[in-house]
Amino acid sequence: MEYFSQQLINGLVLGSIYGLIAIGYTMVYGIVGMINFAHGDIFMIGGFIALISFLVLVSLGITAVPVVLLLVVLVAMAITALYGWTVERIAYRPLRQSFRLAPMLSAIGMSFVLSNFSQVAQGARVKPVPPIVTGGYTLLENNGFVVRLSNIQIIVVLTTVVLLGIFSWMVTRTRLGRDMRACEQDQTMAALLGVDVDRTISMTFVIGAALAAVAGMMYLLYYGVVDFYMGFVAGIKAFTAAVLGGIGSLPGAMLGGLAIGLIETLWSAYFSSEYKDVAAFSILIIVLIFMPTGLLGRPEVEKV
Amino acid sequence: MTDQTSPTSKPKRAPQTNAAFILKKSLLSAFVALILFSLMIGIRTEAGPTGQLIYWTRFGDLAIMAVIVFAGSILTELFRQWLAKRHHAPILPENITRGASSLGRLVVPLLLIFAFLVPVIFYKQRYILDLGILVLTYVMLGWGLNIVVGLAGLLDLGYVAFYAVGAYSYALLSTTFGLSFWICLPLAGILAAFWGMLLGFPVLRLRGDYLAIVTLAFGEIIRLVLLNWQHVTGGPNGISGIPRPTLFGIPLTAGESGLAAHLGIPFSPTHRLVLLFYIILALALLTNWVAIRMRRLPIGRAWEALREDEIACRSLGINTTTTKLTAFATGAMFAGFAGAFFATRQGFISPESFTFQESALVLAIVVLGGMGSQLGVVLSALALIGGFELFRGFEQFRMLAFGGAMVLLMIWRPRGLISHREPSLFLATRTKVSSDLVKEGR
Amino acid sequence: MNKPGIILDVQHLSMRFGGIMAVNDLSFEARRGDITALIGPNGAGKTTVFNCITGFYKPTTGMLRLTHENGRTFLLERLFDYRVSKVAKVARTFQNIRLFSGMTALENLMVAQHNSLMRASGFSLLGLIGAPTFHTAERHAIERARHWLDRIGLTARADDAAGNLPYGDQRRLEIARAMCAEPALLCLDEPAAGLNAREGEALSELLLSIRKEHGTSILLIEHDMSVVMEIADRIVVLDYGVKIAEGTPREIRNDPKVIAAYLGADEETAIEVMEQDA
Predict the structure, then answer these.
(1) A122 near A228, Cβ under 8 Å?
(2) ipTM over 0.85
(3) C47 has a chain A CB within 8 A of its CB
(4) Could you state, in order of their start, the residue ranges of all structural domains in chain B?
(5) Does B256 touch chain A (CB under 8 A)?
(6) Backbone angles phi, psi at B426, to 5 degrees
(7) Residues of B numbered 131-170 whose beta carbons fall under 8 angstroms of chain A's beta carbons: which are they?
(8) What is the pLDDT of residues B68-101, one digit of tens each?
(9) Which domain, by its residues, includes C11?
């Protein structure tokens, strides 16, 4: 029971991270109809930026944990958002009118560029970082097994909730959010009504990248490592989460993320940890075969 | 699709503001690059001697990068304006590409003859022979994937899975049962085709992007299973000691029973390379022949019709599910053959060789070549694999350059090198269909 | 319970999308050898009916019985999409032309003959080895294609990409393609859309000749009243998914309910208008 509770907590935390990444996928798919294959690598870049920022700040003598965290999150979000913007401008915008395979291959190319760029720039070795946020709370203690809720876990979940709140507000209340929803429905009409489609699409990528950056930083804090390959696997899992929740649905992305996080953690805890990735990938296949609109998605009727 | 935003259609500007515009844009690009690279290049982290993280600064490199971006941006803008002055004419005008592929009638037999003579011409250079074998392997894979992606329009990002099935089938069958390469080759193909049908059946009704990512997931699953199923596949150590092919049962070894002894010529390890070269050449040509034939058969036409408009196909009574499955399985079969060849050529296989990068590379070869074009696949395989080889020694930059090349090529020439389609039958005149009309599949 | 002379018997067809009832309890009969027209204002559900008949939608309720000349019957609502064409021999064209634009006109017509050619090619195996039975079958298929190309006047452009053909030619090619599948029932969705008066007349001629020479029954959705009135034997009028009238062109022309539906007015106004006219 205690073991299960611990796994539950761990799974939800991991799921929050996946959810943040999944939002980026689902937003982009909703508005331009493409799977942003490079998004997972944006997450990885976010993690690296966070790592480097930590190092610099600490060496500059800033050691107060909340200050450091805040600064790093801002820096990581800003720079990673710029990466997202650049990727869209260079690799996707010129191909918007093109046929379907071109943006996909361009995205795959971008994914390779990003992951190998970080390999070249920072070396191929895994980068470990000492735990920055330590401590936590013991929730249960039974049969010698301790259920712990660590501070970092609290931070991850809280950050996710706050970001989700801001984001939902933005989508429903602000002009940008309205423009995004309009472009999702009908780009041509939105353009005719004066929506700056280019800017809206760019902002979608930027926001997705910013969220992924936060996810990257959370990942770094939680697991203590970043490596240049983590984007690929996390990307597929996050996309699975987006599909599971219903592509195009924001709450769905978060829900899907939590589900995937839970499934991965529980599978790893109770069955085998080597095949946990296989479990996550299989979920993608199963969902797409049996439930392609996901949990919260809207069913699409094909117009003949 | 409406022409909503064309960043390329700029109003005519006076020359002075032109320079100012370029300068401004390049400065902006350099500034962006500076920010992007500030931490990633400017600071270099590494795990220090005691396990903690250390770093050092590389501001010099950062400055150089910014300058490169600045200069590159200027050059790109100039180039783009030069293009615009030519009224957006394609870099290679239509008649040149068309002429080139009627020349293709000459090029193809020439290439073929050249291919046959490569081992003769380059007998002394093992490196070239090796490269030739590598190129031919990818050409075969490209022709196989061409059936799935180019003809039937199914976005397959997991082609490497069937490659792996073929390789591991041969490896296991030969090391466990001692079966020879020639017996295992068809078996590998059949097994791969079988897997193709198994994997294809549940997912082939998915739309484009979804199909792509599902096939990607399949590819990864297979790789992970191969990696972790230690006692069958050897896990990360793979399978070694895979027997080399024999010529009619005679091994190519140095001893008395070897082929060299039989033919009365001095033994040379190059013999094996030559044999391997001709085997892969034969396999590739087989793939090509089957693909061309099938294209002229109703099934091939149905594949292309499927790519053009699936709903219309259904309305004409075509069973789209079986049609897709045959394309998928046929492509898988050829990947299986190629995989078996790969295993016998290396003598050793491991899951490392069957990553997503491979699938992406083969897909890039197919798309770059121009979907459905056989000659295009050859040209792009030569270009890409040859390009790869140039980077030998700069391993790290290889994939980076490959990714960048993919992006650039898609922006420049999304339809591939060969930008038209040849109809599979004619009533009166041989015509060519421009790629702009050809759909790319769902 | 086969009704003699009826090729398509639609009974109580209903199609619901979420909360919307696109087609509501529609029943009508199409007689063999007739040209039956389905008309009605936009949004009346006509294309939905077509999609149900041709296997693209699964009707919510209802029965669609198709009877061949030899007496064989098919329940179209139970057939899987491609089987409606392959087995029940129902072919169709689309409101937004769905040609294979990257393939030539000739290739388009060959694809339509896919099933018979597949059998002849031994599901590709015989074809691969170049068996003569396949060659013969292919030649016949090309002949049939050529015959249709002549019929629609596109022989000179047989090797041009379908996407390059002018609009009117594309429409006719789509019809020819449907006919190459040798259907018993040909369903045309707005074949005259976008055609000028002269092309419309040519279309009418084509359809009449199809009916005469092949005995194919035709089911037609159309807005162009000149075409409908000229060639239709029977007309079924839909409005908001419900049948509001059925009869010969003359009966329909004088039916106040139909006029009301098209005018967007109610029946009394329509009768007034008609009496004023008379």
Answers:
(1) yes
(2) yes
(3) yes
(4) 15-83, 107-434
(5) no
(6) -130, 145
(7) 149, 155, 157
(8) 888 888 888 888 777 777 765 555 556 666 665 5
(9) 1-89+183-278
